[in-house]
Design brief:
By secondary structure, the protein is of the alpha/beta class. The chain has nine helices and ten strands. Helix 2 runs parallel beside helix 3 and helix 3 runs parallel beside helix 4.
């Protein structure tokens, strides 16, 4: 399911080449509840039931909260939050009819910490994590219905190049960057052995620890780290990216960030040292 038929057809070809027994593609915007309901009807008609529903739809608009236009901020939340709500409502309705099923929501490390320049995305992913927890509690009456939230850190996909930006620079994933296959494997494990919360990323635990236990230091360090590690050197005029419409030419399985992170680590280490010095100097 995606907004671009062209991208879906390419993905379908890859699935068939990998040996998929059957595929069905549906062009839909998850922000439209009726469109998501149609996805479920198509799946049941084609396959007879829905065993696992994986929801990963999300868009990004980089920029300080004050700089991102309100209509762009709202649309990010429509996709990232309301899209998740629509998918969850539709999936759980089908699971209740069947008596079983697994819903996998793709969250983010940014649903557990806060960073500058990604306010709409952070807001949305915190909502996804909260909703996932609520649904886990509310489905305890059905032992064969499971709700999982898989939270990756930075992943090498085109989402950063596809994102809107109001920072003057193109976004990039902060290091360390995982391959999308690693996240996919975690999702498949949830399908076979459901877990309510799964994290993917070498730095996730350290980031959460700093955010929770050293909030003062975290707030000082996070802006220089994001400036160096999460914004590339490529300049760009303000634009909406794929927030409102798909950009199929930019869709792909992988991004271009797999081996770029070591340089960013070195620069980021310098930023940490400088920020740490600044904290000590103020004492």
């Amino acid at each position: 399911v995606a907004r671009s038929d062209e991208s879906l057809r390419r993905a379908e070809e890859q699935c068939r080449a990998a040996g998929a027994a059957g595929t069905a593609v549906v062009v839909a915007d998850v922000g439209d509840e009726s469109a998501v309901d149609a996805v479920a009807r198509t799946a049941v008609t084609r396959f007879g039931r829905v065993d696992v529903w994986v929801h990963s739809a999300a868009v990004i608009a980089y920029g300080r909260f004050e700089d991102v236009p309100s209509h762009v901020f709202r649309r990010v939340l429509d996709t990232n939050v309301h899209g998740t709500v629509h998918a969850a409502r539709t999936a759980l309705r089908q699971f209740r009819l069947q008596g079983e099923g697994t819903l996998v929501l793709v969250g983010s490390l940014l649903g557990e910490i806060a960073t500058p320049f990604m306010g709409s995305y952070v807001t949305g992913k915190w909502a996804v994590r909260g909703l996932g927890r609520v649904l886990s509690i509310e489905t305890r009456d059905a032992k064969d219905i499971h709700v999982c939230v898989v939270s990756p850190g930075a992943v090498d996909t085109p989402v950063y190049d596809q994102a809107g930006s109001y920072t003057g620079r193109v976004g990039r994933p902060p290091p360390p960057v995982d391959r999308p296959e690693k996240v996919a494997r975690a999702i498949v494990r949830c399908a076979d052995h459901p877990r309510a919360r799964v994290t993917v990323g070498a730095a996730n635990r350290l980031s959460r620890l700093g955010f929770a236990t050293l909030p003062g230091a975290f707030d000082v360090l996070v802006t220089p780290l994001m400036t160096v590690g999460a914004l590339s050197r490529r300049e760009t005029a303000p634009h909406e990216g794929n927030v409102f419409a798909p950009q199929p030419d930019g869709d792909a399985l992988h991004g271009r960030w797999g081996r770029h992170w070591l340089r960013a680590v070195a620069v980021g280490a310098g930023a940490v040292a400088a920020a740490g010095w600044a904290v000590r100097a103020r004492r």
